[in-house]
Queue: 4 jobs
Job 1
Amino acid sequence: MGVAAIIAPAAVLFAVGGDAHSPAETSRDAEPVVAEPVFAAPVADHVETAEPCCVELVAAPPTAPPFIVEEPDATPPPGQVFAASRLRIVDRSLPAGVAPEHGLQVKTILTARAISEAFPEISNIGGVRPDSLRWHPNGLALDVMIPNPTSTAGIALGNEIVWYALRNAKRFGLQDVIWRGVYYTPDGAKGSGHGHYDHVHITTIGGGYPAGDEVYLR
């Protein structure tokens, strides 16, 4: 009597070092992770660059339908045998974005890179510059410049960046966001923000200056 069985590719998800996250978390709702310097916290976000830290091995999609065994001694075609075990490497590290990173602290760099990846329409992010307040000179603040900031599309884009930063407040070490006269903190809007109608101003807690071997993760 014939025996029926189905061999289907098995999904494999394997994270090397750091936090484990699904590759699907590269959407705008994803919460990036920064590899902190040795003096920074929390430990869960720290990644030692001397060890594999920023890749995931995931199962490749099947290239053929499942092989159905109709006879006890039947064997699948060779190509279908390997479809279930073939792996691909997914890089979890965040590349440098459009913001100049010299002089920025690690949380500010993480925020800038994450925004660059999540919002490719942003082509200009300011960082360190002279100012009477300490935020920009100390590498704690970003100015995310909004294209056509007074247009309906520009205002909507600025709003989306504000909510993106607030949703990721813990990961970014967010202190505040200012956009279109409103001052936001992770606890909610706090009133007047003194302008900022052409860019979203973002301030972080910093996290310390980079040593040069940090890895910033999605």
Job 2
Amino acid sequence: MDNSKRRPVATPSYSVAQYAPHQILVCKACKHQGETCEPGHALLRKLRAAIAAAGLADRFEVAGTACLAGCVPDHGGPCVIGWRADAKATWLFGDIDPAQPIDDLIEFSRLYAALDDGWMSGRDCPPRLCDNTLARIPAARALAQQGEAVR
């Protein structure tokens, strides 16, 4: 197959601004159905309230985002959610049902905030999240040609 004539599909650039030291991203657009994700919106509202009630609102921003591309087609409900922060590992979890208690999401938020680099073993995650881990991505650190971190 000749890929030399193939060109990437142009899509608008997309980014989510981050105003707090840590951010929790909740998928709220379903790429499989081409519409907004009601379970995602429900989880977003529930998680915002729980983060505030846990006294973590000054450390975590909870934001909705476009499709995080981690869900299973025609699964019908559970959500994809991610944690990120500057110079920390990014975590992505799938199959998070907004109808379930979210204590484990708050527990993970506390663990994540306490770690300098956000890196932990899957065994250290709350049990439900351990089973639903989609990705643990190391933090990116831009380096200058001389090997020093770019700030």
Job 3
Amino acid sequence: MRLRAAGRAEPEDVWLRYADPRRWPGWSPQIRAVHADRERLSAGMSGEVVSVFGVTAVFVVESVDDARWHWVWRVAVGPVRLRLSHRVLRRPGGSATELVVEGPAVALAAYAAPARWALGRLVRG
């Protein structure tokens, strides 16, 4: 599944919203809290994302490219495994973000609407 959102936020600001997991609940309304072993997004970082519904997902960050504003992580909720690839792009008047999610079709269908909402908030100026 590939999702994209565009907005007025500067791409550097969008990247900083990704790079600090403590900020994720501010733009991703389905996230209540993030508990990570590091304060800044980096390869090998691991932790848990707690949803507003109390569901906890464990994660490991696979790669981070600060220069290209791109990062990839693996997330598990019980037996469901997802691989998410995020990218921030510069565009006239602001930025865009792209998310590619790999996983079971049922999980992708359930995740699509909240992910679209969060991405729109991420790039909002």
Job 4
Amino acid sequence: MTGRENIYMNGTIMGMRRWEITRKLDEIVEFAGVAKYLDTPTKRYSSGMTVRLASPSPPI
């Protein structure tokens, strides 16, 4: 799962509609500071990046 996919998944879990997530995507990416790595699989993220994105820990 990429960072972008993770944002959509977490937004959906939080009850946001897809258009809402799309509208706020730039703001979310800016806040998390992961713009350069947005399409990189989250399992390659550092622990700090994972926390900022609020994604589940990658499987070991």
